[in-house]
């Protein structure tokens, strides 16, 4: 069965040829891998591949192999369909304080135009527009405390 | 003097837990503080008693001197341990604790005041014959005079706007012939930026190392040093790797540095634990930077090479006992390295990250210690410092200590969060680190070499295999489950951060 998975920042194709709870045979990037699962201990999985034992630790989408970290998940269709960019919404990435706002309602922004500076965890973060548009609404003023995940600015 | 029986810890996180562990060994009861949002953090309940500071700004909680002293009195504590940060270097707090009839586990308010002020400390240090960075801060701004002063300091020198900051009005002069144009440029910039063209001169140190001497003094006039630590590797002016001994310090240099440190502690009649921070130049000259009048974050490396418990020594000193050793008894054995794990993304400008810790992990690497203020399931929020834990390894040599620590970093994972764990491994395995080329601009100098490495094909395949075989993973089912990203910055699609 061919399937797509999200590996770090890219979408990759995996061909799962055979699978049961203790075994998986798959083709990745032209190479076939036969991997046995010998033991599962809490968050640790002991795998064996070609007589080599590999311990993979992982919780949810966060996997670590030999100390190397991977983010792996099944593609999230609902998100890829409705990217926030398309709606021109801009939300705060984390709770913090608005230090400076560079634009006004009606301002025309290009990709890369600085929108505002937020302070979170004693550090300043400049937030830039990633698309071209006109600022329709600025929801906060300088000095305001904002929660994480709230809309800051609306572009159209 | 009376023995301490109950300590209120005016701090949080890993350092609160650190104090508790020693106090417990000494049969001393502990009292901890916590805020509303910290109820699930281990320090909230790890002591014998704990008090809620409510919520709000830090000045209402961990910086609220009156409230903390009131709690200490009401619960019958006889001493207060300030930890590091927060009120640890506030002389007014030390004074109020004493006035309330309690023991402050730290130096006298006078020592804190004297060393806490950059100006008074430098004057005192010079009196004691310990060098601070040579410079000229005088009013005579004539070029001829400034050139003379610059030559006295020795080139290269830094010309800096007196009113300055942010790199404006700053010039480095390597040759005397460049002095005039550099001075004019600096003055012009200074006038434009600050409305004042007064400049000062300072010796420019091209490849500085940050070396610090751990000191410990009792109330009976005994002043000891516990050798040096090197903490040159920093990012955003915060240390991330600390070690003892320093690969750059020879026995002769160590003797000079520790003698200077003792000169300071005996000269100011210091009491308790402290750290003398020095800048070491490549020519073996060192200069006083500042003194920290408290326990340091990186004290475990000193503990591992000396076999001493610094918190125990602090308590011994505070209750008026003599330190139970002579300088000759103290030895620096083997090598210890500490790394600080932060919730941050080193591959994206060290941006802090927040989220929930799914799994910290544990290590079975020998001689390795984890000082951590969190347990699985805890949330890392923006309210406090993003340091998650300190991981320290000891080995017979620097090489062995680095190998052990690098291995232990494979076990201490903080799954669920974006951390600097992998970045610390890149530092520990960099050939330049092994050569001891650890200068304060290490992170910048080796920026390219410290970039994230591409995983091998097999590592990627094993990660994919684990994902496919994982019982609860979305891969095992046909229905799509929403996988939420834990790093809020990562979930960002509408805008870019720099």
Descriptive report:
Chain A is elongated. In chain A, the strands form three sheets. In chain A, strands 1-2-3-4-5-6-7-8 form an eight-stranded antiparallel barrel. A four-stranded antiparallel β-sheet of chain A has the order 9-16-14-11. In chain A, strands 13-12-10-15 form a four-stranded antiparallel β-sheet, with no helix packed on it. By secondary structure, chain A is mostly beta strands. Helix content of chain A is 6%, strand content 62%. In chain A, a hairpin with a 2-residue loop joins strand 4 and strand 5. Chain A has helices spanning 77-81, 84-87, and strands spanning 2-7, 10-20, 23-28, 31-41, 44-49, 52-59, 62-65, 68-73, 89-91, 96-101, 108-109, 114-120, 123-129, 133-138, 145-146, 151-155. The longest helix of chain A is centred in the middle third of the chain and has 5 residues, at 77-81. Chain B has three domains: 6-105, 3-Layer(aba) Sandwich (Rossmann fold); 135-203, ATP-grasp fold, A domain (Dna Ligase, domain 1, 2-Layer Sandwich); 210-445, ATP-grasp fold, B domain (D-amino Acid Aminotransferase, Chain A, domain 1). In chain B, 31% of the residues lie in helices and 22% in strands. Chain B has helices spanning 13-25, 43-46, 65-74, 91-99, 109-116, 118-127, 143-153, 179-194, 251-267, 299-306, 310-318, 398-408, 421-429, 431-434, 442-445, 457-469; strands at 6-9, 29-34, 49-52, 79-81, 103-104, 135-136, 157-161, 170-173, 199-203, 209-217, 223-230, 234-235, 238-239, 241-244, 272-280, 286-292, 335-342, 344-345, 351-352, 355-356, 368-372, 379-380, 387-395, 495-497. Chain B has a five-stranded parallel β-sheet with strand order 3-2-1-4-5, sandwiched between helices. Chain B has a four-stranded antiparallel β-sheet with strand order 6-9-7-8, with helices on one face. The longest helix of chain B has 17 residues, at 251-267. Chain B starts with 5 loop residues before the first strand and ends with a strand. Classes of the chains: A mainly beta (156), B alpha+beta (498). Strand 13 of chain A pairs antiparallel with strand 24 of chain B.
């Amino acid at each position: 069965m061919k399937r797509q998975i999200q590996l770090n920042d890219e979408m990759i194709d995996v061909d799962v040829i055979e699978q049961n709870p203790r075994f998986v045979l798959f083709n990745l990037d032209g190479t076939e891998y036969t991997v046995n699962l010998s033991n599962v201990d809490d968050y640790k999985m002991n795998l064996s591949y070609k007589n080599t034992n590999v311990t993979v630790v992982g919780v949810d989408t966060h996997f670590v192999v030999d100390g190397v970290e991977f983010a792996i998940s099944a593609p999230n269709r609902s998100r890829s369909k409705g990217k926030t960019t398309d709606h021109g919404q801009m939300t705060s990435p984390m709770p913090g304080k608005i230090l400076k706002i560079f634009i006004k309602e009606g301002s025309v922004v290009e990709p890369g135009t600085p929108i505002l500076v937020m302070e979170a965890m004693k550090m300043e973060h400049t937030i830039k527009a990633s698309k071209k548009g006109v600022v329709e609404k600025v929801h906060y003023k300088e000095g305001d405390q904002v929660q994480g995940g709230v809309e800051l600015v609306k572009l159209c | 003097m009376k023995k301490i029986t109950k300590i209120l810890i005016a701090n949080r996180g890993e350092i609160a837990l650190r104090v508790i562990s020693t106090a417990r060994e000494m049969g001393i009861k502990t009292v901890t503080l916590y805020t509303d949002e910290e109820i699930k953090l281990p320090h909230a309940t790890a002591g014998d008693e704990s008090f809620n500071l409510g919520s709000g700004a830090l000045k209402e909680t961990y910086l609220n001197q009156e409230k903390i002293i009131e709690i200490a009195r009401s619960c019958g504590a006889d001493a207060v341990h300030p930890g590091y940060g927060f009120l640890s270097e506030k002389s007014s707090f030390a004074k109020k604790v004493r006035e309330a009839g309690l023991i402050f586990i730290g130096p006298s308010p006078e020592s804190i005041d004297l060393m806490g002020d950059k100006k008074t400390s430098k004057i005192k240090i010079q009196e004691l014959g310990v060098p601070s960075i040579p410079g000229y801060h005088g009013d005579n701004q004539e070029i001829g005079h400034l050139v003379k002063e610059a030559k006295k300091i020795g080139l290269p020198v830094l010309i800096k706007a007196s009113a300055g900051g942010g790199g404006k009005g700053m010039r480095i002069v390597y040759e005397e012939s460049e002095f005039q144009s550099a001075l004019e440029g600096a003055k012009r910039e200074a006038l434009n930026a600050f409305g004042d063209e007064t400049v000062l001169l300072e010796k420019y140190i091209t490849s500085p190392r940050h070396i610090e001497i751990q000191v410990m003094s009792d109330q009976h006039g005994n002043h000891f040093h516990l050798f040096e630590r090197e903490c040159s590797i920093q990012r955003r002016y915060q240390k991330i790797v600390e070690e003892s001994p320093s690969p750059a310090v020879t026995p002769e240099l160590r003797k000079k540095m520790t003698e200077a440190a003792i000169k300071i502690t005996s000269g100011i009649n210091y009491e308790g634990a402290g750290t003398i921070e020095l800048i070491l130049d490549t020519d073996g000259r060192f200069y006083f930077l500042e003194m920290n009048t408290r326990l340091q974050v990186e004290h475990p490396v000193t503990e591992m090479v000396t076999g001493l418990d610094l918190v125990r020594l602090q308590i011994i000193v505070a209750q008026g006992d003599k330190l139970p050793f002579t300088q000759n008894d103290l030895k620096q054995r083997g090598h210890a390295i500490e790394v600080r794990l932060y919730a941050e993304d080193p591959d994206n400008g060290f941006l802090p990250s927040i989220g929930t810790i799914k799994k910290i992990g544990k290590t079975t690497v020998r001689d390795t210690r984890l000082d951590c203020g969190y347990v699985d399931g805890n949330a890392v929020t923006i309210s406090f410092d993003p340091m998650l834990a300190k991981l320290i390894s000891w080995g017979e040599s620097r090489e062995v200590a680095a190998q052990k620590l690098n291995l232990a970093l494979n076990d201490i994972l903080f799954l669920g969060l974006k951390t600097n764990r992998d970045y610390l491994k890149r530092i520990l395995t960099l050939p330049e680190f092994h050569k001891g080329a650890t200068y304060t601009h290490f992170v910048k100098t080796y920026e390219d070499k410290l970039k994230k490495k591409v995983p091998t094909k097999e590592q990627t395949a094993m990660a994919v295999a684990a994902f496919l075989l994982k019982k609860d993973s979305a891969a095992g089912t046909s229905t799509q489950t929403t996988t939420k990203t834990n790093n809020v910055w990562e979930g960002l699609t509408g805008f870019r951060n720099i």
